[in-house]
Amino acid sequence: MAVVRQRVTADVEGDFVVFIIGMRINRVWKVHKWLPVAKAMNPMVAELSKDPESGFLGASSYLNWRGVTLVQYWRSWEQLERYSRDREAKHFPAWVAFNKSVGSNGDVGIWHETYKVAAGAYETVYNNMPPYGLAAATKAVPAAGYRTTATGRMTGGTEAAEYPEEAPLPR
Q1: Pick the CATH number of 16-117 from 3.40.190.10, 3.30.70.100, 3.40.50.720, 3.30.390.10
Q2: How far apart are CA 50 and CA 109, in angstroms?
Q3: Distance between CA atoms of 121 and 106, rounded to whole angstroms?
Q4: 86, 134, 140, 151: which sits with the fewest CB atoms below 10 Å from its CB?
């Protein structure tokens, strides 16, 4: 992906949902327990990406020493919930397989957090980055005008933020 050589921000119409899901490898030597969990994530994202009606907007994944985290963006809670319980989709059989293979035995941890975000109740900025995060999942627009500052982006320009002369914003 090409680096966008300017400051941009995400522009999302309406409410949306941020869903963060991850796994933690508790027993590294039990590869046969955690590898199937890790491998199940990408096929779900691929399935969702092919279905614009699913409500899935996009995702970013992050590897760490003990596992993986996936940040997903959804149009609504209802669409996320519908997907999670759809017996014909890839998530449901992976969920069943995890519960059968691992359950609560301590080998692999799984977790998730869900946030409903009201229209305009978010703030983002990206500079010298390829399309990323919420802006990659939705739409990136120049961080100009009222969008120049975090306060302006968060309030839609209804509150001004002042910066001292000695600390000008880069253009």
Answers
A1: 3.30.70.100
A2: 28
A3: 37
A4: 86
In the β-sheet with 16-25, what is the strand arrangement from edge to edge? 56-64, 67-74, 16-25, 108-117
DSSP state of 168: P
Span 118-171, pLDDT tens digits: 999 999 999 999 989 999 999 999 999 889 988 889 888 787 666 555 555 555
What are the boundaries of each domain within the chain?
16-117
pLDDT one-digit tens code per residue, 1-43: 789 899 999 999 999 999 999 999 999 999 999 999 999 999 9
Dihedral-angle region of residue 67 (phi above 0 means left; psi in -120 to 50 means alpha; beta otherwise) = left
